[in-house]
Amino acid sequence: MAVTDEAIEKIKGMIVSGALRPGDRLPKESELAAELGLSRNSLREAVRALALIRILDVRQGDGTYVTSLDPQLLLEALSFVVDFHRDDTVLEFLAVRRILEPAATGMAAGRITAPELDALQAQLDALGTDPSVEQLVACDLEFHRRIVAAAGNEVLCSLLDGLSGPTTRARVWRGLTQKDAVARTLTEHRAILGALRDADAEAARAWATVHIASVEQWLRTSL
């Protein structure tokens, strides 16, 4: 295992130093192993590990390439990891989301375009006043994803997208056990949208905080 870790660090060093850039093809396995002073087996294990976290892309019959290293690609692993959360740690994920998402919503208030706002409005209108829990959760995910994307920060967008896994489950529980959860969620969504239309960053940030805190507060009493 220590040998594989060393191999990972050496490949990482080549990427960080710029010796290998996004999109570059790695040298042949035998050549790279000799260059780095590694066994071919340890190099192979390192490549597998780096491919799992989207640093490398192994193309059968073609070779191994450095990926684009875009934040969205690299942070895909986050959503995989957070799916393994324990029920008693979901509050910690929600707490992180409560810190990040209101900030992103406030940032979006100064950047979101009229067509983007109209698309959000159409999404809410299409949902109606009595959606199922599943429809509401799907809409909630897409509603916030679009707003965060409008903030213009790919890293923040990818982080929040990755954190949605455990919080989705909490929203489903809430919808199944709280009679007013659907109406409250729709009201909060409309309030967030109204603040965005007014380009009021503080109001948008405040409503986003209220929206997440209501789920968090319910969950605290349920665990």
Provide structural commentary.
The protein has 223 residues and is mainly alpha-helical. It contains 11 helices and 2 strands; from the N terminus they run αααββαααααααα. It has helices spanning 2-17, 29-36, 40-52, 71-74, 76-82, 90-109, 114-127, 133-150, 154-177, 181-197, 201-222; strands at residues 56-59, 63-66. Strands 1-2 form a two-stranded antiparallel sheet. β1 and β2 form a beta hairpin. α6 (90-109) crosses α9 (154-177) and α10 (181-197) packs antiparallel against α11 (201-222). The two termini are 39 Å apart. The mean pLDDT is 88.
Could you name the key traits of this structure?
223 residues; mainly alpha; two-stranded antiparallel ribbon; 4% strand
What is the element layout, followed by pairings?
Elements: H1 2-17, H2 29-36, H3 40-52, E1 56-59, E2 63-66, H4 71-74, H5 76-82, H6 90-109, H7 114-127, H8 133-150, H9 154-177, H10 181-197, H11 201-222
Antiparallel strand pairs: 1-2
Helix pairs in contact: 1-3, 5-9, 6-8, 6-9, 6-10, 6-11, 7-8, 7-10, 8-9, 10-11
- Class by helix and strand content? mainly alpha
Rounded radius of gyration (Å):
22 Å
Helix percent band: over 70%
Low-confidence stretches: none
- N- and C-termini, Cα separation: 39 Å
Tally of extended strands? 2
Largest sheet: 2 strands, antiparallel
Task: Write the H/E string, N to C.
Answer: HHHEEHHHHHHHH
Residue fraction in strands: under 5%
Sequence of strands across the biggest β-sheet? 1-2
The residue-averaged pLDDT reads 88
Shape: elongated
Number of helices: 11
